[in-house]
Amino acid sequence: MRSPKRGRVKDTEADMEIETSASKAKDADSLTSAAYSQMRTDILAGLLVPGERLKIGALASRYGLKPTPVREALMLLTSGSLVERIDQRGFSVKPVTLKEFDELFKTRCWLEEIALRKSIAAADSNWHEQLVLAVWRLNQRYRMVDGVQSAEWEDLHKSFHMLLLSRCGSRFLIQTCADLYDLNTRYRHVARTAEQTRRNVGAEHQAIVDAVTASDPDLAVELLIQHYRRTKDLLRSSLQIREAKQNEA
Predict the structure, then answer these.
(1) What is the C-alpha separation between 182 and 159, in angstroms, rounded?
(2) What is the pLDDT of residues 125-168, one digit of tens each?
(3) H or E element: which one contains 85?
(4) Which stretch of DSSP H or E encloses residue 90?
(5) Model pTM?
(6) Which three-class secondary structure state does DSSP give residue 81?
(7) What is the CB-side half-sphere exposure of residue 157 using CA atoms within 13 A?
(8) What are the φ/ψ torsions at residue 49 (nearest 5 degrees)?
(9) What 3 state SS string does 200-230 have?
(10) CATH number of 98-248
(11) How far apart are CA 156 and CA 190, in angstroms?
């Protein structure tokens, strides 16, 4: 029969081992999450370009991480539309294509029409006030700063568009729309189109909010899709040129 004291020591040692293992697992998850976030951000921003080979050693050095969390993050990214795994050759950034871009546009319009109509049907004064404030904040920021897309404007822009859909009643629909928004942002950065035309993007946003607060879902949806179509037409022209050059190479 073991002494109670000896038993307590063993139990304490076992507890410490469990805590240590749990702590290591948490740290590993944190590093993988950091690698995933950094690579995803760089792919969406076009810093890791379509078709680029993603070498684990180079990425680990780039982000100041060890190879293991980078490899795990790459595996996670293959489940989306950003990274592909090539048999026996590692990983690469998924290419961009006009076909995918056209499909992306259609799917965004389909899903966001549903989400916007549902949100307007469930609207209240608090949501309307949030929209008015969101578009005001967005219009107070410069989109381009020293010829570079403003990260602050980009964050506010996404927040505004997601707020438009936020009352639809489906977190799955909202998340899907957010993912599609990010994919469209990738195409915008890859196309390198600043959209500096006579177009007044701020006025387009304001018109959408005015239609929403007037409880006019038909007009709100029409304006939102027009807003997306204008961007699509600009990007598509640039992507056509890019794809033509790639086919000639």
Answers:
(1) 12
(2) 999 999 999 999 999 877 766 666 678 888 999 999 999 999 99
(3) strand 83-86
(4) strand 90-93
(5) 0.80
(6) coil
(7) 18
(8) -85, 155
(9) CHHHHHHHHHHHHHCCCHHHHHHHHHHHHHH
(10) 1.20.120.530
(11) 20
Residue among 14, 27, 91 nearest 59 (CA): 91
Q: What's 4-93's CATH class?
A: mainly alpha
Residue 9's CB is within 10 A of a number of other CB atoms, namely: 11
In the chain, the amino acid numbered 52 is: E
DSSP state of 92: E
With tokens 């592909």, the residue in question is 84
Q: Which residues of 172-186 are buried (b: 16+ CB within 10 A; e: fewer)?
A: ebbebbeebbbbbbb
More confident residue, 7 or 99: 99
Q: What is the helix (H) or strand (E) element at residue 128, kind and residue range?
A: helix 125-139
The pLDDT, as a whole number, for residue 27 is: 52
pLDDT tens figures, 3-36: 555 555 555 554 445 444 434 444 557 889 999 9
- What single letter denotes the amino acid at residue 131? L
**Fold match between domain 4-93 and domain 98-248:** no
Q: What SS3 state is found at 79?
A: coil
**Strands of 158-233, DSSP E:** none
| Domain definitions of the chain by residue range | 4-93, 98-248
Q: Please, which residues have CB within 8 angstroms of residue 39's CB and are 6 or more apart in sequence?
A: 48, 54, 59, 63, 70, 73, 74, 77, 83
Does residue 91 contact residue 74 with C-beta atoms inside 8 Å?
A: yes
Q: With CA atoms as reference, report the closest residue to 105 among 244, 238, 243, 224.
A: 224
Backbone phi and psi for residue 106, each to the nearest 5 degrees, phi listed first: -60, -45
Instruction: Name the β-bridge partners of 148.
Output: 145
Helix (H, G, I), strand (E, B) or coil at 55: coil
